[in-house]
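pinning this so it doesn't scroll away 📌
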Amino acid sequence: MTKAVHTSLYRVKRLSRHVLRLPLYCILALLVVIFIDLAVPARITVTVTNRGSEPLRGAVVHVTGNAYPIGYLAPGERKSVFVEPQGESDVELAFEPGRRLTIGCYLEPGYQALVTAEVTADRVLADTCEIDFSLF
């Protein structure tokens, strides 16, 4: 066998070895991405803005199984809280004296979501619920 043929065969073997490893590298990269996605906890952020003329005292965001106090909300003030529902859940805002408003959003554990609500002491003026269903 001539030196040129031997060199060509060596290059083909070397190239085929790299080509065969490519699927393995792709699978490893996919596993790393999935691991990162699973390792980063899902977050649900609820943001409430008081659009009324009177303050909201003792405000608490409720989801199934948990309550998150956000306290006093002056007119025009905005506060956010991370929530973790323990099951299927609506989002509710309770405040003194004995008022409770339902924010139009359905959540479940593991969701990644951004919930916003503009409220007065009497009603929810506007709400949005942006849920990220993507795996990555």
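📌 and the second one:
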Amino acid sequence: MKAIYLALGAGAALATLAATAALGMDPPAQDKPAAPVCFRGDMVRNFAARDEEHLYLRVGVKSDVYVFDMVGACSGLQEADSVSVGTGACLGAPADVMVVFRNGKRLARGNAICHAQVVAKLSKEEAAKTLPPGAHP
């Protein structure tokens, strides 16, 4: 009995596909997960920090701006000489940000690792409205 139901179900599915093709219609679309929005670490061109909890990275040739919300305060972020996200980061994912101090803007030279979440990718217009005055990541 199960074999009959399976055969009938398969036959109905084939008939639906055949009718769709005969009418020139596209078959039902499969829901595909959206590709992640990511960038490589070597694509970072500049950065700006509004405070110790918000970081903006300018990335790639198109100068996309990614917004990072730090998990807790990242001490000295505004005074950093450079930042790095290692091999890269993806929108909506956690990231480790290396904050580098070289020029004595802090009492100690060196690096700090801060944890963050990549929360947005801004268009040029959105970046112009969102970035702190005078900031040009």
